[in-house]
Design goal:
It contains two helices and four strands, in the order ααββββ. With about 120 residues, the protein is of the alpha+beta class. It has one domain (about 1-120). The chain has a four-stranded antiparallel sheet with strand order 1-2-3-4, with helices on one face. The longest helix has about 55 residues, at about 1-55.
């Protein structure tokens, strides 16, 4: 009968160690899932910023100006896929070199996060 007591203690210790390991792995998995979600949103923001710049560069700049897609010295705003975006542009060299900045903003844990992409275009 003495050995039966040790077996019960051994089982309780093993169960405690297993539960501790399980909860540690659960915590690591939860953190990995959260990081994966954040990476997905950042990738979507980067893709949106790149797509906005590609749409601008695919048209003649005079058309972008007249349609209000990109106005030098001002900002155009919108939202897409739950992300807020803005396109700012300013002349680096008057009527020759246009600096275009696309900024995508989203909420991350209640605080705004931003992805910014800037490029220069020769407008002639």
């Amino acid at each position: 009968m003495k050995n039966a007591g040790f077996v019960l203690v051994d089982v309780l210790i093993a169960l405690f160690l297993w539960a501790t390991g399980f909860f540690a792995l659960y915590g690591l998995t939860e953190g990995a899932i959260q990081n994966s979600r954040e990476a997905l949103v950042m990738t979507e923001a980067a893709n949106l910023a790149q797509n906005l710049l590609e749409q601008l560069s695919a048209r003649p700049w005079t058309q972008n100006f007249t349609e209000g897609k990109c106005l030098p010295g001002s900002e155009v705003k919108g939202s897409e896929q739950g992300l807020q975006w803005s396109v700012k542009s300013e002349w680096e060299l008057e009527n020759v070199l246009l600096k275009v900045t696309t900024q995508v903003t989203w909420l991350k844990k209640g605080y705004p996060s931003t992805y910014t992409l800037t490029t220069l275009y020769c407008v002639q």
